[in-house]
C-alpha cells in the first residue's frame, strides 16, 4: 500500500467510525429519559442565541420537545418571531425575544426582561455565530466581525447570564457551540507558537487578558497585513481562532465558578456539532442540524451533571 492508499484507507476508517457513532447516538436518543432522571420541567428556562435558523433553531426545537420553556432569540425581530411561531404552532412552550449578542443595550434589555418574566435562566446555549468563508476559502476581510460575534458575543452572554442563573439542585448549565477547528493541538490546524499553546492549554494559567491578547494580536496583524506570517491556524484562520478563544474562555469560566456552593452550581461546557448542513456551510456538511444539535441537548439535560470546563463532540469528551 503506498502513502495515498494509506491515506484513503485512514479516511474510510474514520468515516466508518463516525457513521457507527451516529447510529449509536440515534439509538440512544430513542430511549426516553425516565422520571427520576428528568430534573427539568415546563418551568425550566432555556435561552438559545441565534435560534432563528440552523443549529440554534434545532436546539430550541429539541429542548422544547423535552418539555422545557424555550426562549428563542434572534437579532432580527421579524425573522425570530416567524421562527418561534413555527414551534408555537407545533404546541411547544416557546417564546421569542430580540437579542443581538454583540449589542450591550440589546443584552441589557433582554436580561431585564428574562429576570422580570421568568426570574432568571436555567440553561444558556451560546449558539450565535458567523463565518464568512465557505469550504477552503481563507479571507480575513471580516475577521473582526467573526471574532466579535463568535468569541466576544459568547463572552458577553456568559458574563450577563451568570448573575441570572437560577439556583438548581441539578446545576444550571451553559453550553457554547464551538468547533474542532478551534482545537489547540489540531494536527493540521493550530497556532504554531508552542509556548502560547501551552499557556492556553493550562486551565490554571488561562486568563481573559491572555485570550483577548491573543485574538487582538491577530486582529492587529490583519490590519497591518502581516497575519499570514503570524503562525495562526492555517484553515479558516479567523473562525478557528474565534472558536479557540471560546474553548479557552469556557475553561476559564468553569475554573472561576468551581467554588459555588451545592444548589448554586453552574456547569460550563462547549462542543463541536460536526460539519452541519446549514447556511454557514452553504448546506454542505455531513450531518443534519438535528444531529448537530444533539450534544447540546445532551449536555443541557444530563442528569447527575458534574462536568464543567470540557469540550465534547458526539456526546464524548474530546481534547481542546
Ligand atoms: P447559521 O449561519 O445557520 O446560523 C447562525 C445564527 O447565528 C443565525 O441565527 C444568525 O442570525 C445568528 N447570529 C449571527 N450574529 C449574531 C448576533 N450578533 N447576535 C445574535 N445572533 C447572531 O449557522 P449554524 O447554524 O451552522 O451555526 C450555529 C453555530 O454552530 C455557530 O456558532 C457556528 O459557528 C457553529 N458551528 C457550525 C458548524 C457547521 O458545520 N454548520 C460547525 C461547527 C460549529 P441571522 O440569521 O440574523 O444572521
Automatic annotation (TrEMBL):
<dbReference type="InterPro" id="IPR045313">
    <property type="entry name" value="CBR1-like"/>
</dbReference>
<keyword id="KW-0560">Oxidoreductase</keyword>
<dbReference type="GO" id="GO:0016616">
    <property type="term" value="F:oxidoreductase activity, acting on the CH-OH group of donors, NAD or NADP as acceptor"/>
</dbReference>
<keyword id="KW-0521">NADP</keyword>
<dbReference type="GO" id="GO:0016020">
    <property type="term" value="C:membrane"/>
</dbReference>
<dbReference type="InterPro" id="IPR036291">
    <property type="entry name" value="NAD(P)-bd_dom_sf"/>
</dbReference>
<dbReference type="Pfam" id="PF00106">
    <property type="entry name" value="adh_short"/>
</dbReference>
<comment type="similarity">
    <text>Belongs to the short-chain dehydrogenases/reductases (SDR) family.</text>
</comment>
<dbReference type="InterPro" id="IPR002347">
    <property type="entry name" value="SDR_fam"/>
</dbReference>
<protein>
    <recommendedName>
        <fullName>Short-chain dehydrogenase/reductase</fullName>
        <ecNumber>1.1.1.-</ecNumber>
    </recommendedName>
</protein>
Amino acid at each position: 500500500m503506498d502513502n495515498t492508499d494509506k491515506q484513503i484507507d485512514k479516511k474510510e476508517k474514520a468515516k466508518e467510525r463516525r457513521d457507527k457513532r451516529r447510529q449509536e447516538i440515534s439509538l440512544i436518543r430513542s430511549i426516553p429519559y425516565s422520571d427520576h432522571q428528568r430534573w427539568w420541567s415546563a418551568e425550566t428556562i432555556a435561552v438559545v442565541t441565534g435560534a432563528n435558523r440552523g443549529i440554534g433553531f434545532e436546539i430550541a426545537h429539541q429542548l422544547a420537545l423535552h418539555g422545557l420553556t424555550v426562549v428563542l432569540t434572534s437579532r432580527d425581530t421579524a425573522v425570530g418571531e416567524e421562527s418561534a411561531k413555527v414551534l408555537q404552532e407545533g404546541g411547544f412552550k416557546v417564546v421569542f425575544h430580540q437579542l443581538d449578542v454583540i449589542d450591550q443595550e440589546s443584552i441589557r434589555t433582554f436580561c431585564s426582561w428574562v429576570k422580570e418574566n421568568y426570574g432568571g435562566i436555567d440553561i444558556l446555549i451560546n449558539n450565535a455565530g458567523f463565518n464568512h468563508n465557505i469550504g477552503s476559502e481563507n479571507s480575513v476581510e471580516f475577521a473582526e466581525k467573526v471574532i466579535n460575534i463568535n468569541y466576544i458575543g459568547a463572552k458577553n452572554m456568559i458574563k450577563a447570564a451568570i448573575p441570572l442563573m437560577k439556583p438548581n439542585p441539578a446545576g444550571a448549565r451553559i453550553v457554547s457551540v464551538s468547533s474542532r477547528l478551534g482545537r489547540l493541538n489540531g494536527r493540521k490546524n493550530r497556532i504554531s507558537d508552542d509556548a502560547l499553546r501551552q499557556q492556553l492549554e493550562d486551565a490554571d494559567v488561562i486568563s481573559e487578558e491572555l485570550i483577548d491578547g491573543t485574538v487582538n494580536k491577530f486582529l492587529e496583524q490583519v490590519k497591518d497585513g502581516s497575519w499570514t506570517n503570524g503562525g495562526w491556524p492555517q484553515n479558516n484562520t479567523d473562525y478557528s481562532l474565534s472558536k479557540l478563544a471560546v474553548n479557552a474562555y469556557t475553561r476559564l469560566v468553569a475554573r472561576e465558578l468551581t467554588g459555588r456552593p451545592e444548589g448554586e452550581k453552574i456547569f460550563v461546557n462547549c462542543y463541536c456539532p460536526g460539519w452541519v448542513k446549514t447556511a454557514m456551510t452553504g448546506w454542505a456538511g455531513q450531518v443534519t442540524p438535528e444531529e448537530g444539535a444533539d450534544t447540546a441537548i445532551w449536555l443541557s439535560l444530563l442528569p447527575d451533571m458534574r462536568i464543567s470546563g470540557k469540550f465534547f463532540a458526539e456526546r464524548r469528551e474530546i481534547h481542546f
